[in-house]
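Record 1 of the preview.
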Amino acid sequence: MGKSWAAVAMLVLGLVGCRGEPDSLRDLARAAHDDEDFVSVPILRTSNLDRSLAYYEQQLGFETQFTWGEPASFAGTRRGETLIFFCLECQGSGPNWMMIFVRDVRGLHDELKKRGANIVRGLVEEPWGMVEMHVEDPDGHILRFGTGTD
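->
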């Protein structure tokens, strides 16, 4: 995904709606697709941006990629190729659910448990060929992590 990440961030920042638009949305949208035909980034509503970013960093192992505004009202995090944006008290409602496919959900479960993540449903082998767990963030959003079984 590489260079697309910055373009997607700029595009979404321009579409925040609360703060105006960049000069050329068309150019930003085109730049976002240099590497991929489709790039999807969920935007989660948060009631406390600092709290959300701290939770995603400390308990879930994401890295904050940017914050926007003074004071910050929009931010983006990343872990691997998974990007999640947050909007302070705007864009959408919640809580929402998100499915994130991972290579090793059992290993991730152990890591997140040690980090103190709020695991609301532990590892379950599902009849549809997945091992899954559910993690809740401070705003009640559920991240459903899963690995396909053999």
